[in-house]
Design goal:
By secondary structure, the chain is mostly helical. The chain has one domain: Orthogonal Bundle (Farnesyl Diphosphate Synthase), CATH 1.10.600.10. Helices cover 75% and strands 1% of the residues. Strands 1-2 form a two-stranded antiparallel sheet. Strand 1 and strand 2 form a beta hairpin. Helix 4 packs across helix 8, helix 6 runs antiparallel to helix 10 and helix 9 runs antiparallel to helix 10. It starts with a helix and ends with a helix.
Length: 348
């Protein structure tokens, strides 16, 4: 194992910082509950990052070592255990889910021209756009190798469909970017594709590997989808409300890129013609002045846009909790319910 991979291996270990909220307590509890499985997953991730082309493990290790919470693979591991699965297929599939997620991050940062990822310099900022795109392709390929090795056509169908849906969501976001005529329905379609689809697949395959009844497969897919929707809604609110250190990226990135998110849609719908002109200038024409972000934040506050976005996130969170009622009470169910709090509490 080279130095870059060793560093990544250390970084993706299950250690957690001291919890600062009920939500973080829930993440720590879930991590501890599946610790042996997560450690096996992390080892597999490091192993499959290897390549004789030195730049591949070097760049992959950079983004893996950036300190992500491994939320999506944690969901796969916990869902499988909640469904009574006692084999080890879920470990490789959790690694597969993380590779898909990491590949999309590499591609997203190139598309968005992001300078930060999880509070550190993004891979494209350090290595350039072309290596980031190509290493993202490599990680997608590794994910599909893991799917094929699993041997289940149903698992392959679920995860490959999620990968295609993520790409569709990102393209739709690109199409609607800078367009203030975007509808809420289009926005929700974007976040369902780019975020919720992988959450849904991550939890659904937990029931599939455990060979559970179809009703439980559907329930876990619903849990993951609604959790993913809540997660993205909170993210979109935080882009206007969080401190940079908390957000792990530059505050106002969505604003500077002209992304049309729910807070903007709500403020635009509730604003007057003068405000409409402001939003068109900064988002459609991309003519942004130094104090425009502060004005955008003031308009969102005036019209209750952040408040109502977070209320919508809580509604999706409640739907995720309802989906868990299909399963018997136990530590895994409690941990997965706690993750709903983790996702929503990030905005507090």
């Amino acid at each position: 194992m080279n130095a870059a991979a060793a560093a990544a291996g250390a970084a993706i270990g299950p250690q957690q910082d001291a919890p600062a909220s009920r939500g973080e307590d829930a993440l720590a509890a879930l991590t501890e509950l599946v610790r042996p499985d997560l450690e096996a997953c992390n080892r597999l991730i490091v192993e499959r990052m290897q390549s004789p082309v030195a730049l591949i493990p070097q760049l992959a290790a950079h983004i893996v070592a950036a300190g992500g919470k491994r939320l999506r693979p944690l969901l796969t591991l916990a869902a499988a255990r909640m469904c009574g699965y006692r084999g080890d297929r879920h470990v490789a599939l959790a690694a597969c889910v993380e590779f898909i997620h990491t590949a999309t991050l590499l591609h997203d940062d190139v598309v968005d021209e992001s300078a930060l990822r999880r509070g550190q310099a993004s891979a494209n900022a350090l290595f350039g756009n072309k290596p980031s795109v190509l290493v993202g392709d490599f990680l997608f390929a590794r994910a599909f190798q893991l799917m094929v090795a699993d041997g289940s056509l149903r698992v392959l169908a679920i995860l490959s469909a999620a990968a295609a849906t993520i790409a569709e969501g990102e393209v739709l976001q690109l199409v609607t970017q800078n367009d203030t005529t975007t509808t809420e329905a289009q926005y929700l379609e974007v976040i369902e594709g780019k975020t919720a689809a992988l959450f849904a697949a991550a939890t659904e395959i937990g029931a599939v590997v455990a060979d559970r009844p179809e009703a439980e497969v559907v329930a876990l897919r619903s849990y993951g989808r609604n959790l993913g929707m809540a997660f993205q809604l909170v993210d979109d609110a935080l882009d206007y409300a969080a401190e940079q250190a908390e957000l792990g990226k530059t505050v106002g990135d969505d604003f500077r890129e002209g992304k049309i998110t729910l807070p903007v849609l709500l403020a635009f719908a509730r604003g007057d013609e003068e405000e409409h002109g402001f939003w068109r200038r900064v988002l459609e024409q991309r003519e942004q002045r130094e104090d425009d972000l502060a004005r955008a934040q003031a308009l969102l506050e005036r019209h209750g846009a952040l408040r109502d976005t977070l209320a919508r996130a809580r509604e999706y969170g409640a739907a995720a909790l309802t989906a868990l009622e299909s399963f018997p009470e136990g530590p895994e169910r409690r941990a997965l319910a706690g993750i709903v709090r983790f996702c929503v509490d990030r905005a507090r």
